[in-house]
Every structure is written in C-alpha cells, then in structure tokens.
Write a structure and sequence with these properties.
It is built from nine helices and nine strands. It is an alpha+beta fold. β8 and β9 form a beta hairpin.
Length: 245
C-alpha cells in the first residue's frame, strides 16, 4: 500500500487564495467529483464557462499543485490524422493543511498513537512511553534544525539559534526572542488538546523540544515548562552553559 503524502504546509494560504476565485473553485469541485480524468471541454460545459476561460483557470489550479495534468487523444484514434492529444485534469494527490493560527494535530496524533502501541506491546505506562516517543521525535527535529545550518562556516550559538527559530517557525510555534534572550513560543500547535489534556500534552511538548535542543547542542538554550494561557507552555531559556566561540 502506497504511503499517503504528507500535507503540504509550504504555501497553503496561497492555495486558499487560488480557490477563493469562484470560477476556479467551481472547476476544482467539479473535477474532484469525477472518477476519471476531465477534459477542458467537459469542465467548461459543467460550470458554464468559455473553453479558453476554463483552460486558464485549470492551468492555474495545476500550477498551484491542486490538479494533475496528462495528455490523451480523446477521439480514440491513433496514428496520423488522429489529432493532437488533449490536456486532461484530475485532482492531485497532494494534501494541503491550513489553520490559523497554525495547528499540527497530525504530529501530536502520531505521537500519541505510537506511544499507545508501544506501551501495549511492552506492557508499559502510556504516559512514560509518550515521553520516550516525544524524545525520539525531538531528536528527529534536531536533525531538521541541523540541516538548516548546513554549509555554514561556524558552529557559533547564534547560527544554531537561528536554525532553531526557523525550524520551530516552520512547525507553527511562532517563536519570538525577548530582550533577555528567552524564546517565547507565541503559538501552541497543539492548543485545543493542551487545553483539555494539559499535563499530558504539555509534558509531551516539553520532552519534544528539550530533546531537540539537547540533540542539536551548542545553542545555550534549554526548554522550560511554563504554562501560559496565551502562549505555548514551553519557553526556551538560557541554560548558562559555556558556548562555542
């Protein structure tokens, strides 16, 4: 069974903007309702547009990754005189995730599911296993942070801190640096779950971020659990360690 593609978060708001145009949205919804490829003529007729207008909107949808494109001779004939293949469309397999402010329930859901499965298989406490799973995920996040700083000529803490901020920004934490160097995470990607299951979810989040910082090293930061109503429960604070020059 083929693995389902992960949701694309790179420009999801741009996709929302594209679908905000009524004709494009109508074309997209029509194509999504079909079980097979759709030609420009079929799409234009279905939504009551001129063929050229429909073609423009369909190609824009394809450019944004919402539709796949192929070419097929619709007459069924082959060889000379069969005519040029027509451009046809179908919904793309790509998924887009849009949430304002950013939320990442797929991540927390995956961690919770893995923790339950591991705990059941090994007859262990679920909460303790979740902390372990979160630490594993934190080490993977550290690899992402490290990749952000590849190619730099130094391992100074400032470089690594920038990599941390960029990675956390990509995951929806909305980091902001205060004058004393503390990094406040203005958004909690797990907000709704943290409201109803604070101890479990906040503990998981703390283990995730603390493990990431520990595995990356050289940032001079550590994760501190400090629950707040308006920000993430974790802050990144100076750890007082000596930093590489």
């Amino acid at each position: 069974m083929a693995e389902e593609p992960a949701p694309d978060k790179s420009d999801s708001l741009g996709v929302v903007g594209v679908l905000g145009e009524p004709n494009r949205r109508a074309l997209y919804e029509f194509i999504c309702s079909q079980d097979d490829w759709v030609s420009r003529d079929q799409a234009a007729d279905a939504v009551g547009l001129l063929r050229a207008t429909a073609a423009h909107h369909l190609d824009r949808l394809a450019a944004e990754g919402l539709l796949d494109i192929a070419f097929r001779r619709l007459s069924g004939r082959q060889g000379p005189g069969a005519g040029r293949p027509a451009k046809i469309y179908r919904r793309s397999a790509r998924r887009f995730q849009v949430s304002l402010p950013p939320r990442d329930f797929e991540l927390v859901g995956g961690l919770l599911a893995e923790a339950v499965e591991r705990a059941r298989a090994e007859s262990r406490d679920v909460a303790a296993t979740l902390d372990e799973v979160a630490r594993d995920a934190g080490r993977k996040l550290a690899q992402e942070m490290s990749a952000e700083s590849e190619g730099t000529a130094t391992t100074r803490s400032a470089v690594r801190r920038r990599a941390v901020l960029e990675a956390l920004g990509n995951h929806g934490y909305e980091p902001a640096v205060e004058p004393d160097g503390t990094v406040v995470l203005r958004n909690c990607p797990f907000h709704e779950l943290a409201r109803t299951h604070r101890e479990l979810v906040c503990g998981m989040n703390h283990e995730l971020l603390d493990s990431a910082l520990g595995a990356l090293g050289g940032t001079g930061l550590r994760a501190r659990l400090q629950p707040e109503e308006t920000t993430c429960c974790v802050r990144l604070v100076e750890d007082g360690s000596s930093l590489p020059a």
